[in-house]
Design brief:
With 644 residues, the chain is an alpha/beta fold. It is 33% helix and 18% strand. The protein contains 19 helices and 24 strands. The strands form 6 sheets. A 9-stranded mixed β-sheet has the order 5-6-7-4-3-10-11-15-16, with helices on both faces. A 6-stranded parallel β-sheet has the order 19-18-17-20-21-24, sandwiched between helices. Strands 12-14-13 form a 3-stranded antiparallel β-sheet. It is globular, with a radius of gyration of 28 Å. The N terminus is likely disordered. It is an enzyme of class 2 (transferase). It is found in: Plastid, Chloroplast; Plastid, Amyloplast. Pathway: Glycan biosynthesis; starch biosynthesis. Its main location: plastid.
Length: 644
């Protein structure tokens, strides 16, 4: 007889180990469950060492989904004969329990779960993670995801949100390019070749891509491999600017993402057609267009839905209209991507301004649209923040929502952070004063606990409002404060940081460049974090600051306005707020708000401590964000999919 799989065998034994209904009375039965649990643990470890990690369990709704061959996939290979199973490992410890698997009743089940994996073979009792009421097969499509490839906040989101959704019970796949540049290739060391390949008809030819796969944190990480992803430089360009073939590179990604749920047998079975595609920014925006134009007309993906997540509307994937035939889309779908530049943006008098816009195509065809904050979901419908898509986004306001990003508390937690010299929490803030003293020492500033230390972390460019910081710095340096900046970008602003440090050696420090450990220490050691961004779709630094008891002073825009509550010492229930959000963005407003924060720090210590603790008590975890995304999934499946 074939031995049951490791997970199945252990689960049967675990069910028998639970309290369950008693069969007979007596003292022997009371000791039986505990002895059997110990035996189960030994049996599971033995099975694991014999057969390797346990296979992932199948969701009940997808035990045997019908395989629909992808439109672009080669014919399936013949099924292989299953390998013979070695004989079961004898376990004398089960004999003294007089147990036979056949004796276990079907209803003999409790909440005991046996986890048989390389990391953990212990028995876990009870419910540790909140579970979704309805689970889905979710496919994230993105140009980057941490820790594999990251250039900004998009990588953080697509590296953390899928893990949070998987922890809530969903089956999650992330599809992204397999970037190889000779320096970060080790990031894909655990990804194996799936032996699946497809040919994509676009750009005047048939281009073969292959798939690599890694199963990590209960998520299927799928990497699309093609020579266009193998080059030195960063993800989207090099020192000479953006790559000229980015449209081609991400067209391949979108086609491959549509095929992956149909052809990749991950964990033994495919994702199938009833998927929720979560497409991120312009790199993945062709996916909803492909679903509507090349799959649903032929009865494929008729039950799938797509959600467009806009992280930064400033990047839209705009290319000349002459490139439309290269995309492999039907001619009648040109209108979905059609884009005309205003006259002032055209290069010359004969330029008609005709183009194709990837992001616009997704705005038109996606079933729901999400921005990375509620404030940004309103801003993108205005002429000032809509980047030319304001009218179109305004017309889809009924399906437009905003959800604030979360933060990874495994990396950003003052109680466990490996980058800071002292740990602390909202219950014991003494470690924060020590972090401040160590930061002052590291930066070469006078070690004064009474002086407010203001910090800035970010790119040195126009969006972040560095020019306004530069204008107020002479007035700010007249105050009894210290200021620390970390960032890189505009060479002129980098030179300004160096010269300001030379002029105010006891008050100002500028770290040109970026360092993750230093950013953690500045966040933990500063009293105030300044963020005068002109626009900020979500913003993460203010979330990190509040998590570390550092009070944010921000421009009230986008996600900054959503997440930072203005300090009110006379609230209905006492003092309220977690920082200061000022508007409009002027040097006068910023300087006045900073002086108010400095005065509060010096003269109202109890109020300042309340600001710190309220910020640290806020829930900005990814689990909270994942719960809100589940509501969007529910709404998307209620409505019919987009059909032209």
């Amino acid at each position: 007889m074939a031995t049951p799989a490791v997970g199945a065998a252990c689960l049967l034994l675990a069910r028998a180990a639970g309290p369950g209904p008693r069969r007979r009375s007596g003292g022997g039965d009371q000791a039986r469950p505990r002895r059997l649990q110990r035996a189960v643990r030994r049996r599971c470890v033995a099975e694991l060492s014999r057969e390797g990690p346990a296979p992932r369990p199948m969701p009940p709704a997808q035990l045997a989904p019908p395989l629909v061959p992808g439109f672009l996939a080669p014919p399936r290979e013949p099924e292989r004969e299953p390998a013979s199973t070695p004989p079961p490992v004898p376990d004398d410890s089960l004999g003294d329990l007089d147990l036979e698997l056949e004796e276990i009743p079907e209803d003999y089940i409790n909440d005991t779960v046996v986890v048989a994996s390389e990391q953990d073979s212990a028995i876990m009792i009870g419910k540790e993670q909140a579970r979704a009421e309805v689970t889905h097969s979710i496919v994230f499509v993105t140009g980057e995801a941490s820790p594999y490839a990251k250039s900004g906040g998009l990588g953080d989101v697509c590296g953390s949100l899928p893990v949070a959704l998987a922890a809530r019970g969903h089956r999650v796949m992330v599809v992204m390019p397999r970037y190889l540049n000779g320096t970060s290739d080790k990031n894909y060391a655990n990804a194996f070749y799936t032996e699946k390949h497809i040919r994509i008809p676009c750009f005047g030819g048939s281009h073969e891509v292959t798939f690599f796969h890694e199963y990590r944190d209960s998520v299927d990480w799928v990497f699309v491999d093609h020579p266009s992803y193998h080059r030195p430089g960063n993800l989207y360009g090099d020192k000479f600017g953006a790559y000229g073939d980015n449209q081609f590179r991400y067209t391949l990604l979108c086609y491959a993402a549509c095929e992956a749920p149909l052809v990749l047998e991950l964990g033994g079975y495919i994702y199938g057609q009833k998927c929720m595609f979560v497409v991120n920014d312009w790199h993945a925006s062709l996916v909803p267009v492909l679903l509507a134009s090349k799959y649903r007309p032929y009865g494929v993906y008729k039950d799938a839905r797509s959600i467009l997540v806009i992280h930064n509307l400033a990047h839209q994937g705009v290319e000349p209209a002459s490139t439309y035939p290269d995309l492999g889309l039907p001619p009648e779908w040109y209108g979905a991507l059609e884009w005309v530049f205003p006259e002032w943006a055209r290069r010359h008098a004969l330029d008609k301004g005709e183009a194709v816009n990837f992001l616009k195509g997704a705005v038109v065809t996606a079933d729901r649209i999400v921005t990375v904050s509620k404030g940004y979901s309103w801003e993108v419908t205005t002429a000032e923040g809509g980047q030319g898509l304001d009218e179109l986004l305004g017309s889809r306001k009924s399906v437009l929502n905003g959800i604030v990003n979360g933060i990874d508390i495994n990396d950003w937690n003052p109680a466990t952070d490996k980058h800071i010299p002292c740990h602390y929490s909202a219950d014991d803030l003494s470690g924060k004063a020590k972090c401040k003293a160590e930061l002052q020492k590291e930066l070469g500033l006078p070690m004064r606990p009474d002086v407010p230390l203001i910090g800035f972390i970010g790119r040195l460019d126009y969006q972040k409002g560095i020019d306004l910081i530069k204008l107020i710095m002479p007035d700010l340096m007249r105050e009894d404060i210290q200021f620390a900046m970390l960032g890189s970008g505009d060479p002129e602003l980098e030179d300004w940081m160096r010269s300001t440090e030379a002029n105010f050696k006891d008050k100002f420090r500028g770290w040109v460049g970026f360092s993750v450990p230093v950013s953690h220490r500045i966040t933990a050691g500063c009293d105030i974090l300044l963020m005068p961004s002109r626009f900020e779709p979500c913003g993460l630094n203010q979330l990190y600051a509040m998590q570390y008891g550092t009070v944010p002073v921000v421009h009230a825009t986008g996600g900054l306005r959503d997440t930072v509550e203005n300090f009110n010492p006379f609230g209905d229930n006492g003092e309220q707020g977690t920082g200061w959000a000022f508007a409009p963005l002027t040097t006068e407003n910023m300087l006045w708000t900073l002086r108010t924060a400095i005065s509060t720090y010096r003269e109202h210590k109890s109020s300042w401590e309340g600001l710190m603790k309220r910020g640290m008590s806020k829930d900005f975890t990814w689990d909270h964000a994942a719960e809100q995304y589940e509501q969007i999934f529910q709404w998307a499946f209620i409505d019919q999919p987009y059909v032209r």
